[in-house]
Design brief:
Elements: E1 9-15, E2 27-36, E3 40-49, E4 57-58, E5 64-65, E6 67-76, E7 79-89, E8 103-110, E9 114-124, E10 133-141, E11 149-150, E12 154-161, E13 169-170, E14 173-177, E15 182-183, E16 189-197, H1 199-203, E17 208-217, E18 223-234, E19 238-246, E20 253-262, E21 268-278, H2 287-291, H3 306-314, H4 322-334, H5 337-349, H6 356-374, H7 385-393, E22 398-402, E23 411-419, E24 422-430, E25 440-444, H8 455-459, H9 482-487
Parallel strand pairs: 15-21
Antiparallel strand pairs: 1-2, 2-3, 3-8, 4-5, 6-7, 6-9, 9-10, 11-16, 12-14, 12-16, 13-14, 16-19, 17-18, 17-20, 20-21, 22-23, 23-24, 24-25
Helix pairs in contact: 3-5, 6-7
Length: 490
Amino acid sequence: MKKALVSVSFALLVIIPYAEAQRNVKAHVLHASFYAPGKGPYVETYVTVIGGSVVMTRNAAKKYQGAVEISMAFSQKGEIKSAKKYTLISQEVEDTSGVIPNFIDQQRTSLPNGDYDLEISIQDKNNITNKPVKGSMAITVDFPENKVSVSDIELLESYTKVYNQGPLTKSGYDLVPYPYQYYPETVNKLGFYAEIYNTKQVLGIDERFVAEYYVESFESKARISSMNSFSRQTTGSVNVVLAEFLIQDLPTGNYNMVMEIKDKTGAAVAVKKAFFQRKNPKIQMSLEDISAMATASTFVTKMNNVDSLAEFVRSLRPISSQMQIHYAETQLNNKDLGMMQKYFLNFWMTRNAENPEQAWFEYHKQVRAVQKEFGTKTLRGYDTDRGRVYLQYGPPDARTQVDNEPSAYPYEIWQYYKLKGQTNRKFVFCNPDLVTNNFRLIHSDALGEVNDPRWNMKVHNRDTQSQNFEEFNAPNHFGGNALDNFNNPR
């Protein structure tokens, strides 16, 4: 494998916090795990520093230039396995009155299979009066030797065929990563790149296989019919897929870019997903498709009470896309029983076409359980944060409940070992009113969820109040265990 810029996973994204008034550094930090045959796994880190967030000073050539010092460390259970510190220099500009270009960096770190914590710190070298901004993320490296596996999917801003290798060259192309998980309506292409390993060892020499790639709904896992294609390939040491989809007709919502590897019998042998969000307000759900749904002889015909059906529709919010929520609200306001039945049937048909009634029955059991445990006098269980997370992701693998820690509000920490293609994801809920059963979600490291590095301060805001947004952790308190509970859930 060439020693060049390699794929960056958009399944994990950290936006380093900054205060515009203090002109702190703003940066996007991404990572990817890859495998080099004969050498082993490695992790790429990719840092995009926003040019306008750093102080530019004149250099010896009397041009303006920025510089940041980056420190990063990979650790396991508190033990540092690899660390480095280096300076990243921006390109030169004639003056600072115009747009300051972003500047980018990539680093490669060899790491064995396992789970790691990556901590990163970025300091503006021309603005040392401000503290460095910091971030952290969980990383899993997992490339088994006896199975077909797929690298993280790199979402691309562009790619160009080249004949001379440069810092962005990969497999004969210069790949420019798309450094976000968010696609606004002004972006109408989704390019991507991935590598496939061990096909020759597992499937056989010169065997044919298929790399199928598609976009699916993050919530329902339903495929987007217009964004589904494949590449027929022959087994090798490393196979690659480089392609793109047009997304101008993709509605607003949460999605997964999926790469699925199938052997010659059609059996899936490996899969990889990358989360992304799309905002496209010009595209709405198809009224015609839902209006054409035939409800006769289906389970929804038994739902002939408008109020009861409306409650059922509302309970779908935790597992609905934003587009579905908006459409459902319209139907609830109109109180059209026939259209509500068609919407409800369509919703469950996309999840289980063979038995939509059973899919609803199983979900409704969870809704009742959530109401019993998390409902309040003013909120249905599915409208609470804990209820929403439970219905969307299922019951947590570990749940730490703390009601009487000194100086802290009652809080809970939930941990999921596996979560929609992610590993070791946690949720922190807090109840600052001390009276109701309404615990609010204040922090999570899961994709698409609220992420607040100052969550520990909020938990302890009962006694420790601070307006310093550079301060992430509350002072040590007698009996204070919030950080330990987060890092080591029971």
